[in-house]
Design brief:
heterodimer, A: alpha+beta, 8 strands, B: 342 residues, alpha+beta, nine-stranded mixed beta sheet, three-stranded antiparallel beta sheet
């Protein structure tokens, strides 16, 4: 009487290979990361880089920027037109809020988002 | 005949092959160098993302090219071609550099075909309204009438690399084309440097070159005219996008909004039933010129103009209705609430 096995040897090797590949894929996806980071620049020079998480407010050359897990916005700016404040909350990679008079900008990178914005 | 076990084995093999392919593609694309550079030119924020081994060099040269174009076309810079042309109004022909000659030619062509909805000699009016210095009240009606008489593209003559303003008091302002033209300059650099793919935003104008690693298209968000964030996004391949919207520069006086997109025919901000127009075509300066002209003309009158240039557009009107020309249908995804696509 022959012994009844759950897996044949060939099937077992296949299963192991699939699991190994799934693990490798998971590793790569984890390494890429899904979180967003805000990059603050002054006249094109990066001056701060903040991974989004806990609420945080920082001021750069008179421009107050609020960082939250859900997005980033300019809360206060010294410029007369307040275009940066009117931009509102940016939430996706590729979006930016810019205070031209102060030369301060904040943009998002990482996670899902856009390649550029037309306005 | 295949058993159930055999079928499972085939399925597992397919899964494995897909995983291997996915990992190979992923690692390939992750190995494509990506350069992100932010600079300021033309009174705007310039953001570049360039893929490929030459990305860093290409981005640096593109930033220089944008700055150099500004030096040539800004009427505020005394040594620019346009400042010299304005200074010689009613006098002599002025020699132009190649990019300025090309841009002026585009401006005059769109001016002619749009019946003056875009007018490169808008400077007397645009300087009177002075939207760049955050005005709080409109100019006096008498002044608008007076300065409007000094706006007429037919007084501007071009012969190859030379141009002449035939009458004194007239002046050229290429601000309506400048940011789009800057995208042209940058894309020429990406092509010259053989970048794998690149995207540049100069203010609200966007230039797209080559392929984005790991994707068939580039995704460009269109600003929501009524609110914050994106109206939606367009999935596009190579080309240029510019948007003209009444939300960008405006002030409120006596309960009425005054925006910066002036109608040369009236001297006042254009009221065509539109709040925003985004134009997509194969040249940046042209896309910028057309977006301004289309905003002034309104939806119906814009269609034949766009057709003449093989350009596509997305219109948003005051009722929050969105209209797309045929070439953009199926490429736009609406994200904001409260809008209807017609």
């Amino acid at each position: 009487m022959s012994e009844r096995r759950i897996f044949r040897k060939r099937e077992f090797i296949y299963l192991l290979a699939v699991l190994a590949l799934a693990g490798t894929a998971w590793f790569f996806m984890s390494a890429a990361g899904s979180g967003q980071t805000a990059i603050v620049e002054c006249r094109g020079i990066e001056i701060d880089r903040i991974p989004l998480g806990e609420r945080l407010a920082k001021t750069y050359d008179g421009v107050t920027i609020v960082f939250e897990k859900s997005g980033v916005w300019v809360e206060k700016a010294p410029c007369p037109d307040k275009l940066c404040m009117r931009t509102g909350k940016i939430t996706k990679a590729g979006e930016a809020a810019v205070c031209l008079p102060a030369g301060v900008s904040v943009r998002l990178t990482g996670g899902e988002g856009y390649d550029a914005l037309t306005y | 005949m295949k058993t159930k076990r055999d079928k499972i084995m085939v399925l597992l093999t397919v899964v494995m092959a897909a995983c291997v392919l996915g990992i190979v593609l992923y690692t390939t694309f992750m190995n494509t160098p990506k350069t992100e550079v932010t600079t300021y030119s033309m009174g705007s924020y310039v953001q570049q993302t360039v893929y490929g081994k030459t990305g860093e060099d290409a981005a640096a040269q593109a930033a220089n090219a944008v700055a150099q174009l500004e030096d040539l076309i800004s009427w505020r810079k005394p040594d620019s071609d346009i400042a010299k042309l304005n200074a010689q109004a009613g006098g002599n022909w002025v020699e132009l550099n190649l990019p300025v000659a090309h841009l002026l030619s585009t401006a005059l062509d769109v001016a002619e075909k749009s019946g003056g909805a875009l007018d490169p000699t808008i400077a007397p009016l645009s300087q009177l309204w002075d939207f760049d210095n955050s005005p709080t009240a409109p100019p006096k009606a008498a002044d608008i009438e007076k300065f409007k008489e000094y706006v007429n593209y037919k007084t501007l003559k071009q012969d190859g690399y030379s141009a002449l303003l035939q009458k004194s008091g007239y002046a050229v302002d290429l601000g309506a084309l400048g940011k789009g033209a800057a995208c042209d300059e940058a894309v020429a650099v990406y092509r010259d440097k053989q970048a794998a793919g690149a995207i540049i935003s100069v203010g609200g104008s966007v230039g797209i070159y080559g392929k984005k690693p790991g994707a068939d298209t580039w995704e460009v968000a269109v600003r929501d005219p009524a609110g914050q964030g994106a109206l939606g996004s367009l999935r596009l391949t190579e080309g240029f996008l510019s948007t003209s919207g009444n939300y960008e520069k405006f002030f409120t006086y006596d309960g009425k909004n005054y925006h910066h997109l002036l109608d040369p025919a009236t001297g006042y901000p254009a009221e065509s039933g539109l709040v925003s127009v985004t134009v997509f075509c194969n040249e940046g300066g042209l896309s910028d010129a057309l977006s301004t002209a289309c905003f002034v003309l309104g939806y119906e009158k814009s269609l034949p103009l766009l057709e003449q240039y093989g350009a596509e557009a997305l219109f948003v009107d005051t009722r929050q209705h969105i209209k797309l020309t045929a070439g953009l249908q199926g490429k736009f995804t609406l994200a904001a609430e409260g809008y209807t696509i017609e």
